[in-house]
Amino acid sequence: MLKLNYTEFGLYMERATVSLDVAIAQRIVLALRLGQSLHVEPSQAAFLLPAQANGLTPLKALLKEAKSDIATVIPVDDEFVEISLSGSWVAISEAAHEGTFLTAISDFPSANLREQVEALIYKLWQMSEAPVSSWA
């Protein structure tokens, strides 16, 4: 599962071994114990990557093999592509700009393929956070 945390400082992504259902259930229990409201809804999330990023070609091939629309690579212009993910938005309110987006690429034909796609998306995001010189 991929976990995208949107904060006032930007986006932070991590991989989690817990299932989507368990992660949402844990967050609900935490909110109840803290006396907070919680909003959970199906949603989309996206982030930009340089169009020439190493790893995009293998990612596109894996997504094509999986025949899934949970994750897509969409050209934006000559310089950037957008990685779009389907999943669940978890925040303190419907209008919140900060929260957590969770996606589990569960409809893939195999767990191995799912792991490869999640690992590659995570690696691409990590590389996008590194200095520009690492793209060469």
Detail the topology: elements first, then pairings.
Blueprint: E1 2-7, E2 10-15, H1 20-34, E3 39-50, H2 56-66, E4 71-75, E5 80-91, E6 99-103, H3 111-129
Antiparallel strand pairs: 1-2, 1-6, 3-5, 4-5, 5-6
Helix pairs in contact: 2-3
Helical content class = 25-40%
Strand content: 25-35%
Task: Give the biggest sheet.
Answer: 6 strands, antiparallel
The string of secondary-structure elements, in order, is: EEHEHEEEH
Radius of gyration over C-alpha positions, nearest whole angstrom? 16 Å
Number of strands: 6
Cα end-to-end separation: 29 Å
Backbone structural class: alpha+beta
Overall number of structural domains: 1
Mean pLDDT: 88
Low-confidence runs of at least 5 consecutive residues:
132-136
Backbone shape: globular
* Helix count from the secondary structure assignment: 3
What does this structure look like?
The chain has 136 residues and is of the alpha+beta class. It is built from 3 helices and 6 strands. Strands 1, 2, 3, 4, 5 and 6 form a 6-stranded antiparallel beta sheet that branches. A hairpin with a 4-residue loop joins strand 4 and strand 5 (80-91). The longest helix is centred in the last third of the chain and has 19 residues, at 111-129. The two termini are 29 Å apart.
